[in-house]
């Protein structure tokens, strides 16, 4: 019985983001995919906090630490009217879709946390559109 409980605990700790997240795809290419965690979105006035994931088709290698990872989950804050973004911490996972082992958490630099303009035709713009653009209301019969 202890082995089953231990296995369940290890599985839960190995991929915490995968269990709570509700990933919605926003952009996809042959090398990477961008998704946003719908469960992480919170709004406070004009500001939106969310987590997004970049999932790579092939393992990526961190040259400094020699770590291989397949997905990264990053927290971000978007200011809708100003059309700016601020990046937070990032979690690197060995598996796709924020699964496998959490191998590193990076803390952003001051430059990354500073709000910067969302550039046209970028993944940041995809996040901004998803979080900030008004969605058309459903038509009433």
Features:
single chain; 141 residues; alpha+beta; Lipocalin; 8-stranded antiparallel sheet; 4 helices; 43% strand; disordered N terminus
Question: What's the quick description here?
Answer:
This protein has about 140 residues and is of the alpha+beta class. It has 4 helices and 8 strands. Helices cover about 25% and strands about 45% of the residues.
Structural category is: alpha+beta
> What is the CATH topology assignment?
Lipocalin
Helix content: 10-25%
What about the largest sheet?
A: 8 strands, antiparallel
| β-sheet strand percentage | 35-45%
C-alpha termini separation: 56 Å
Number of domains: 1
Number of strands: 8
Q: So, CATH architecture?
A: Beta Barrel
Protein architecture, described:
The chain has 141 residues and is of the alpha+beta class. The protein has a single domain (14-130), classed as Surface-adhesin protein E (Lipocalin). It is built from 4 helices and 8 strands. The protein has helices at 2-14, 16-20, 110-113, 123-132, and strands at 23-28, 32-37, 42-44, 47-62, 67-79, 84-93, 102-106, 116-117. The radius of gyration is 17 Å and the shape is globular. Mean pLDDT is 85; it is low at 1-18.
